[in-house]
Amino acid sequence: MILIYSNSQDFTVDYFILYLEARHIPFLRINTDQYPSSFDISFGVRKCEIHGSITGQAGVVPLSEVTSVWYRKPVFKRTIFDNPEMNSYVEIEVEAALEGVLRCLPANFVSHPKAIYHAEYKLVQLQEALRCGFQVPDTLLTSDYSQGKEFLDTYVRSITKPLRRGRLIKDSTVTLFYTTELSQNQLERHQDSLKVTPAYIQKRIDKQYDLRVTVFGHTVFCVAIHSQEQEDTKLDWRRKQEDLKETVFDLPQHIVDKCINLVKSLDLQYGAIDLILDTEGNYYFLEINPTGQWAWMEQELDLPMREALYRTLEGSYAK
Fold this sequence. Notes:
- By secondary structure, the chain is of the alpha+beta class.
- About 30% of the residues lie in helices and about 30% in strands.
- The chain contains nine helices and 18 strands.
- Helix 2 (about 85-100) links the parallel strand 6 (about 70) and strand 7.
- About 30% of the residues are buried.
């Protein structure tokens, strides 16, 4: 049985479940934001043997029946109490319970949470990408104004972007942080901010396309995002993604191999990789999202991504 581990607002999961239901493939969905009010997980040791089960709308499912796990986007945030410290305590306990049980399952993970958490660090991504033979834009992480100034002296056209989280949520209002240009004047005006948080700076690459490479095991899909056709999306295509043209792109085999090797080197079974094809025909690695979105590409371009995900969960993807 496939265990889907995410949250109640994950529409990519909804889309994949339609695929499973149409083929009568057994699955169990766990919405972490609804635990333990909507389902129960029991786990224990009796006579030196581990026993466990999940009880919900589908009845009682022994943990021993779980053969594969799709680890998506769990949510542990709780606002049950007026006391924020109590909410924090509940969040930590809920996460410890769910993640602890999950990590005891001898199942095929897409991907394992330990690997996902490790792969989310952008600096780790850059290091592994270089080891796999990718070109990477010259990059600097620093809280030292003089080092930032020296970098911008060398690369007048540079960008900056978040190192980890690209969004801020306050009072149900979401603020997104996009890739933006960074000039010497901007760095000088905000140099006091470097005493609070470091800056992540890269040389700007002139693009032909942004490329989203989606890897399921050894199955690879590539989509060209025509981000240079609009001024607002030249630096970050997410600003107006809904207005952009997207086409299936035939990635050279040596780049396909590097993408597969990168996912494998990070001990992942899935990865959403962002590349740049520059104006001279060079491919640059930007980052990899170990739980990145993919459903929009299947819907718009009729790519068989749900099939690839299912085969990866079953361990039967093309090798």
